[in-house]
Amino acid sequence: MHLYLHIPFCRKACHYCDFHFSTNLSQKELLVKAMVAELERQKDYLADKHLSTIYFGGGTPSLLSEEELDTLMNAISARFSVSGSAEITLEANPDDLSPAALSNFSRTGINRLSIGIQTFDDEMLGYLNRTHTGEGAMEAVKRAQDSGIGNISLDLIYALPAPDHERLKSDIGKIISLDAAHLSAYCLTIEPDTAFGRWVQSRKMLPVDEEFAAAQFEITTTELSAAGYEQYEISNFARDGHYSRHNTAYWQRKPYLGIGPGAHSYNGSSRQFNVSNNNKYIKDLTSGISPATVEILTSDDQVNEYLLTGLRTKWGCSLDMLDQLSEGVFRETHRSTVKELVARGWLQMIENTLLLTPSGKLFADRVASDLFIG
Ligand code: SF4
User: How far is Cα 128 from Cα 206, in angstroms, rounded to an integer?
Assistant: First the structure.
């Protein structure tokens, strides 16, 4: 099984971010205690007790103190068996990666770091409200690599405001020179409840147009592919098969348990969503109440979720699985839509599997929604 832990704290609010986090770090200790209580409550959520991946996401998990990380790791290993080959990832901001922090991560069993770079351009980092510099990020990645945590993933954002292909090419060049095993490259999306969302609303900031974003996606995929990175999911690139095993489990509809405010879980037939509020989460768990809302998935939900995530991957969506999830109706009802999407050059069918074409990757959500049922 797969375990996700959401650490909902950040030093500063990045101007584009709509994840659940708080900049009030004083609650960290109480929240870790509540997470341990939730681990105990949820230890039987899935029948399988054998963890093959653990993922500390956020927020900024690299803000956890040595003691807090130990508390969580001990609570996990007291309730689950952690495979010796488990992938254990921690998301980190570059400015938290001191030699002492790195050796602590290594000691606790973290064997994969996902480092939030976003760009190396200092002016843009300031505009995004990031806490680090480009040079600081380069040095942090090298320190992480020297520390022996060899499985490093870097996050990059393209289609940033103040559109500039040269900045993106320079960012990608630096990423390639760092020789990271994995890269996640995300197109900036402007969410309403963020500083950028409000700036666009008040016309203080202009959003990047779709054509420019598509050109940046093309630059990103072409340059990374030339450097030996395989695009195994629309936003994820790996060298030598260093796929994120944890995220691949989500895309392949494997069951997982999510712990922490805002985290969600999936058991094969329902999802549950934890409250995205640190105070309420702590209060619920302290009072012995579940912080989660449960949603039973219909067969339509299962098919549509599989299309949304599966089509984005190099494994695509199996027609047999779509038929199984839809109780036999998918192939029958979608024959002509599949034909149309193939004729448009967005979809291909190889050995009973639906896969996006390179141009279809630009319209992944649209293709998935054309194939939705219900
Ligand atoms: S550090 Fe990450 S989670 Fe925190 S505000 Fe920035 S982007 Fe969001």
Answer: 14
